[in-house]
Design goal:
Elements: H1 6-38, H2 41-48, H3 51-78, H4 81-116, H5 121-136, H6 138-153, H7 158-181, H8 185-209, H9 226-258, H10 262-298, H11 302-329, H12 331-338, H13 342-355, H14 360-374, H15 379-398, H16 409-413, H17 415-443
Helix pairs in contact: 1-2, 1-7, 1-10, 2-5, 2-10, 3-4, 3-6, 3-9, 3-10, 4-5, 4-6, 4-9, 5-8, 6-8, 7-8, 9-15, 10-11, 10-12, 10-13, 10-14, 11-14, 12-13, 14-15, 14-17, 15-17
């Protein structure tokens, strides 16, 4: 990543990440399609309404996996083998601890949090059951996230893709068995997810155990290295807190959506799943930017860092504009895959008309934030995102959206592109300032 063609290597690195994200979404879509088709709109709403809450609870620890990626990639680029080996063992142990904490919080607090989110009574019981089973197996998800972050740090995005493909196929098969044949409803979907995530965790651990270099995992050597843990936390906690605040604003939006009833929730859930396909195509390059920036920063190649960011921003803008608008234009037949209810499709189209057509702004914002983190600065993009995305959305919902003439789903969804655009500009300015200071310091 520190030499040769930037665009070609960026595409080769990000491609498997994009396909991994698409596969994950296809498997998630299979969950929603199976539930919507074979269990009904209330079950669809129950599963769909939990996504923002899951993200809220999980994002802090996903942020730590981002910190793991940055630290490992930096040591790899700098050729620090001993520190890299310690990072691998610290990260896997940290993933296990993270999963245990999430299981306790998620299982105990699911129903209470859903009530705070104004989940309708007709979906509350099913949504609670789904969450409790999901969080019962969340440790496997954490192990996979941290393990795949380590593999990405050395440039390996293919094996996580193959692992996800295999586990995802298992997930789809189990969905059909549990929901269609055994009539287990949302419990079947959750159980299928837990089993498939456990398989993916086992496979990624096996990959690390078979490594021949400093990425090799030895279970007997699992130990939390204090200095590396602190470094992961310094980068990961701000990234995770940003994710938490980002998700918190989405939980507030989901709560507002919930107030419009089960039909709107179901349409919103299906549309949100479709949007995800555009997002992962952009986010693959944001993750690529993170790793490329980290390795090149470790090798002190700062002019190359600048070129990486410019290339990523252009690619993401093009992808977002083309795929986002295509998704909106094909929205009705695509939403029809999830449900045969015309009013649910109408509700979904209302969301797509706002989000998909402006989605490139979100991708460009993520690339700029990833570049700043790749340079080792995690607090700044956190503050910018918290203020620019979360703060603006909460202000918008508490003022404009509360006015009777603007109290509609369409006006609610407008908070997304407004916050993306403003935050993107702020992140880009911050990146330019930080890179200039680092280059000046390095030249001194």
């Amino acid at each position: 990543m520190t030499n040769g063609s930037i665009v070609g290597k960026l595409i080769r690195f990000s491609g498997p990440l994009i396909f991994s994200g698409i596969l994950q979404l296809l498997f998630n879509a299979a969950d929603i399609v199976v539930v919507g088709r074979f269990a009904g709109d209330n079950s669809l709403a129950a599963v769909g309404s939990t996504s923002s809450l899951i993200n809220l609870l999980v994002n802090l620890f996903v942020g730590l996996s981002v910190g793991t990626n940055v630290v490992a990639a930096n040591y790899f680029g700098a050729g620090k083998k001993n520190e890299l080996s310690k990072t691998v063992h610290t990260a896997i142990l940290l993933s296990i601890y993270s999963g245990i904490i999430l299981t306790i919080v998620g299982v105990i607090g699911a129903k209470q949090i859903l009530r705070l989110m104004q989940s309708p009574e007709e979906v509350l019981v099913k949504a609670t059951l789904y969450l409790q089973i999901y969080f019962g197996g969340i440790t496997a998800t954490m192990v996979y996230n941290f393990g795949s972050a380590l593999l990405r740090a050395k440039g390996d995005t293919q094996r996580p893709l193959f692992i996800l493909l295999f586990a995802g196929i298992i997930n789809v098969v189990l969905n059909l068995i549990f929901v269609v044949f055994f009539k287990m409803d949302v419990a079947g979907v959750a159980l299928a997810t837990v089993i498939s995530q456990t398989i993916s965790a086992v496979l990624v651990v096996v990959c690390l155990m078979k490594e021949e270099d400093e990425f090799k995992l030895n279970i007997k050597k699992l130990k939390m290295d204090r200095d590396i843990f602190i470094r992961i936390v310094k980068i990961g906690v701000p990234a995770g807190f940003q994710g938490i605040m980002f998700s918190f604003s989405n939980v507030i939006i989901q709560s507002s959506v919930n107030s419009f009833g089960a039909i709107t929730i179901a349409g919103n859930s299906a549309a949100s799943n479709l949007e995800g396909f555009v997002y992962v195509a952009m986010n693959g390059f944001a993750q690529g930017t993170l790793t490329f920036t980290s390795q090149n920063a470790g090798a002190t190649k700062y002019q190359r860092v600048k070129k990486v960011v410019i290339a990523s921003e252009i690619i993401v803008m093009v992808i977002g504009l083309i795929l986002g608008n295509l998704m909106y234009l094909c929205g009705r037949p695509l939403l029809g895959i999830y449900t045969d209810s015309p009013i649910v499709v109408d509700a979904g189209m209302e969301r797509l008309s706002i989000i998909c057509t402006t989605y490139c702004l979100c991708g460009m914002m993520d690339v700029a934030a990833s570049a700043i983190r790749g340079l080792g600065h995690s607090l700044l993009p956190m503050f910018v995102t918290v203020i620019g995305v979360c703060g603006l959305r909460l202000l918008y919902i508490g003022t404009i959206f509360m006015l009777p003439q603007f109290h509609s789903c369409k006006m609610l969804f407008l908070s997304y592109p407004i916050s993306w655009g403003i935050t993107f500009i702020a992140q880009l300015v911050c990146f330019g300032i930080i890179l200039k200071k680092i280059m000046k310091k390095n030249a001194a």
